[in-house]
Amino acid sequence: MNSMSDRIICEDVSKFYGEVLGVNRVNLSLPPGVTSLVGPNGSGKTTLMNLMTGLVRPTQGRITVLGLTPDQPEEFFRRVGYCTQFDSFPKGVTGHQFIFDSLKLRGLANQRAHQLTLEAIERVGMSFAAGRKVAGYSKGMRQRIRLAQAIAHHPTVLVLDEPLNGLDPMARAESIALFQALGKEGMHVIISSHVLHEVDKISDRVVLMSFGYVVAEGQIQGVRSEVKEHPMQILVRCQSPSLLASRLFCQDHVVEARLNTDAKGVLVRTRNADQFYLLLNRIVAEEGIGIEAVAPADDDVNSVYQYLIGSGGGTV
Fold it and tell me: Can you tell me the distance from the alpha carbon of 227 to that of 165, in angstroms, rounded to the nearest whole number?
């Protein structure tokens, strides 16, 4: 495959709703695997997903999905599956019927539609409830049956808007395993989330969004290196945190040194990690401070996102 036909590509893509910004000047080239769009509610994740799935068109720029655009609807929508965050079903429909009818709308024969329906329902662990009316499902069950509908036609690109909402712990674990398996099978799995501690378990890469802009992208360690101008956070657990904080704070490269929330350590923000570690060794030797643990606080999506972007918001 060439670089266009196996990637989702955004070229200077912007979307405005009147004067309201959805996303602005987004440039991405996403290979197969699991990509998580990370950001607070209103950061532009859903707008970007709607652009990827052809539900809205960009105000400017161009987006292609595996070399296709929504102007080629038959092939485009055969390759794309979308599970939105909106929880809506036809009245009186069963789980099986919901998926079967959607496949029939794609022009599939009854036998093939039935086969794919059973396969998708089994893959999301909903075989036990397939014959029951969706109106009697829990929120988590409705979420899983919508996921089954999105994967039933064997898309190459699967776009999932907050797919873990409403799931109990076991269903969450099963869904995460499914997303990872689909990514390893060569599918593009695009997931949006603000449940940040789970994102780095799921993702091959993350795209951090704020106020409609892509702030950084890549593996979480790579994302951290993209924003080196921001101070690095390091958590030091020790026996005398107040003494350590007072010694650290007077150093030029230390931006902040404060007691951790449990008062059993110091959270340090430094512009020079190497210099910090040398300083820490010296302070420990001079003061006799017992150190229990020293670890970067930036190696997960939550800590990177929280202090690089803050609470964010303001877009669709």
Answer: 30
User: Taking a C-beta distance cutoff of 8 angstroms, is the pair 16, 22 a contact?
Assistant: yes
How far apart are alpha carbons 62 and 69 in whole angstroms?
Answer: 9
User: Cα–Cα distances in Å, from 230 out to 93, 223, 252, 258?
Assistant: 52, 12, 15, 17
Higher local confidence (pLDDT), 271 or 55: 55
Q: Is 88 left (phi over 0), alpha (psi -120 to 50) or beta?
A: beta
Q: Cα 36 from chain centroid? A: 3
Tokens representing 118 are 């059973």
Closest residue by Cα to residue 230 from 198, 208, 261: 208
Which residues have CB under 8 Å from 177's CB, separation 6+? none
Using the Cα atoms of residue 43, residue 46, residue 51 and residue 55 in order, give the sign of their dihedral: negative
190-194, 199-203, 222-226, 269-273 — most confident range: 190-194
Strands lying side by side in the sheet with 80-83: 80-83, 157-161, 188-193, 33-38, 205-210, 213-218
Strand order in the sheet with 254-259: 254-259, 265-270, 232-238, 291-296
CB–CB of 89/132 below 8 Å? Answer: no
Per-chain mean pLDDT for the chain: 85
Residue 112 has pLDDT above 90, yes or no: yes
pLDDT in tens, 206-220: 898 878 888 888 876
What distance in Å separates the CA atoms of residue 283 and residue 246, rounded to the nearest whole number?
11
Buried b (16+ CB within 10 A) or exposed e, 5-36: eebbbbeebbbbeeeebbbbebebebebbbbb
Instruction: Please choose, from the candidates 312, 267, 254, 258, the residue with its C-alpha nearest in 3D space to the C-alpha of residue 293.
Output: 267
Contact 16, 59 (CB under 8 A): yes
Distance (Å, rounded) from C-alpha 129 to C-alpha 35? 30
Contact 82, 150 (CB under 8 A): yes
Read off the tokens for 271.
Answer: 């512009």
